[in-house]
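thought: fold this chain, then report.
action: predict
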Amino acid sequence: MQASARNQAMDLLARREHSARELRHKLARRGFGPDEIEQALEGLQADGLQSDARFAEDYCRSRIGRGFGPLRIRAELGERGVAGSHVEAALAAEAADWHALAAEAWQRRFGVAPADRREQARQQRFLLNRGFPGEVVRALVARAPDTET
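observation:
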C-alpha cells in the first residue's frame, strides 16, 4: 500500500529542507494527484513543517559556505520556486561580505595573479559563473597582484 502524500513529503523533509515546488515535483513523480499534493503541502505549511523562507535560509547558508555569490544563489532559488522576498530576506540575514567571499574563492582556485589578459578573463569568468557581481569580480582581479604571497 502506498503511503499518503503527506507521509511521503514528511519523509523527504526529514532528510533536508525542500521548497514547495520541489515537493510538488517529487510527489507528482511518485504518482500523487495535484489535489492530494496541494492538500498535503497546505497541511505541512500550516503545521510549520515546510517553509520556503526556512528553505531559502538553509540553502543560502549552504551555497555561501561553498563559495557561491548572490547572483547565482538568487537564480538557483528562483528555479526552485522560492519567492523573491524570501530570497532577499535570506541573503540579508546572512550579511555576507561578497568581496571577501569572492577573494576566498579566487584564492582557492587560482592563488596567483593573472599573467596575461587571457588568464585575467578566465579568472573573471570563473568568479562570474560562481555568481559574484561584475564590479566585485573586476575589482578583485584588477588588484590580484596585491594578493600574492
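thought: worth noting. The first helix runs from residue 5 to 15.
final: C-alpha cells above.
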